[in-house]
Design goal:
Blueprint (H helix, E strand, L loop, with lengths): L5 E2 L19 H16 L1 E4 L5 E4 L8 E3 H11 L4 H12 L11 E3 L4 E2 L8 H11 L3 H21 L2 H4 L9 H5 L14 E2 L1 H20 L3 H21 L1 E2 L4 E2 L2 E2 L4 E2 L9 H4 L5 H11 L30 H13 L3 H17 L23 H12 L3
Antiparallel strand pairs: 1-2, 2-3, 4-5, 5-6, 7-10, 8-9, 10-11
Helix pairs in contact: 1-13, 1-14, 2-3, 2-4, 2-14, 3-4, 4-8, 5-8, 8-9, 12-13, 12-14
């Protein structure tokens, strides 16, 4: 088997961003969009391991392969100019779906496939966005049974059936979380009902009910809606810490909340399941310079473990984006826009998109890969999408 990927030179014309933007774009914003567009297109590779489909690598030099949730994020952004390329990102991963419904973590360019752990269940949510922008009922018919198996894996093997709430698992649960060395996991991973994971599952159920409706599957639609409603209630009841005044991970083995306050705590807002009272409390935390304002670090500024290392402090565009959109969704547009503008201006000042950024100085993070795919994807979405 040929394990040498071939780069693809695509002569895409840069989109007319003004037709997609909700308000007039400034010159620097257009330049940042163009850099992000170039990054995603420059990272496209065709490979036999990917069934000769066009895969978008996170980084041509650092991450040589196709990664799980990266592909979902890439698909959302590129659906704005090439829906088929977006669906190829999805198909590459689902072609390697495991018998239990799980998806692999990575399909490397050298032929290796990492199957022991996956990544957070964001694909149904991403597919729903791609389909909304470019409807394709035949594609939904084909992917739907695979998504049913995907949900079954999370429900059966990650706590849903047993507890009603979900936890990360597998031999490397910190990798499955996507947050790797986060301060959140200093007390363990698979022992916690993770606030972001449970919100991703609520988003999954939301997407699945929409697919079922589109496909005329009324019983399935009702089933998925009920699953989302039941899970949303448990999140509100079990994952709000009254002492901290925030949504937090819960150590169900020790019977206590985790102490790390992170952007994951804003996920109930993005998922649209937070009460007005709790959303207001989260907005105050977002506006607090001791917590998350203005750089949305991956652990609050005042946490004793906050620092420049990877997921232990730097700003990552995906977690920041969800927090910003969640705040917007609940009407806190002023604080959301201040955080958005701060982060995006830092990205512009740094050149092409980096993997992550120092949440204090705003400079590209130490050791961060340049021309990083999902950062480019979230820059595009944060500039063009308003909630």
């Amino acid at each position: 088997m040929n394990t040498t990927p071939s780069n693809i030179n695509l002569s895409y014309q840069q989109p007319d961003w003004s037709k997609q933007a909700h308000s007039k774009l400034q010159t620097w914003e257009v330049e940042l969009l163009n850099r992000s567009f170039e990054t995603l297109n420059g990272n496209i590779v065709r490979h036999e391991m990917w069934h000769n489909k066009r895969g978008i690598e996170p980084s041509l030099t650092r991450y040589v392969g196709v990664w799980n949730w990266d592909s979902a994020f890439h698909a959302i952004a590129v659906s704005r100019w090439d829906p088929e390329l977006a669906r190829e990102q999805i198909d590459i991963l689902f072609a390697e779906q495991l018998p239990n419904g799980a998806l692999p973590d990575v399909i490397y360019a050298d032929g290796r496939i990492i199957k022991e752990s996956g990544k957070p269940p964001v694909f149904p949510w991403a597919i729903a966005i791609v389909d909304k922008r470019s409807p394709n009922k035949e594609y939904l018919k084909d992917i739907y049974p695979k998504l049913v198996k995907f949900e079954e894996f999370w429900r059966k093997e990650r706590g849903g059936d047993k507890d009603g709430l979900f936890h990360y698992g597998g031999p490397q649960p910190y990798w499955e979380s996507g947050w790797d060395n986060s301060v959140r996991w200093d007390i363990g991973v698979s022992n916690q009902w993770a606030i972001d994971l449970n919100c991703y599952m609520a988003m999954l159920y939301d997407a699945m009910s929409g697919f079922a409706k589109e496909l005329g599957l009324k019983d399935d639609e009702a089933k998925w809606k009920k699953a989302k409603t039941d899970l949303a209630k448990l999140i509100e009841q079990k994952l709000w810490d009254p002492k901290t005044g925030a949504y937090l991970d819960y150590d169900y083995q020790a019977g206590k909340f985790g102490t790390a306050l992170t952007p994951a705590s804003f996920m109930p807002l993005y998922a649209g399941i937070a009460s007005k009272k709790y959303a207001e409390a989260m907005a105050k935390i977002a506006a607090d310079p001791k917590k998350f304002f203005p750089g949305m670090p991956t652990v609050s500024y005042d946490d004793r473990q906050y620092g420049p290392d990877y997921w232990r402090g730097p700003c990552w565009l995906n977690t920041a984006g969800f927090a910003i959109w969640g705040l917007e969704k609940y009407g806190f547009k002023n604080i959301a826009e201040k955080i958005r503008q701060t982060i995006l201006k830092r990205c512009y000042d740094g050149g092409y998109p980096y993997e992550y950024y120092d949440a204090t100085s705003g400079k590209p993070g130490q050791g961060a890969a340049e021309k990083f795919g999902w950062s480019a994807a979230f820059i595009i979405e944060m500039l063009l999408e308003r909630r």
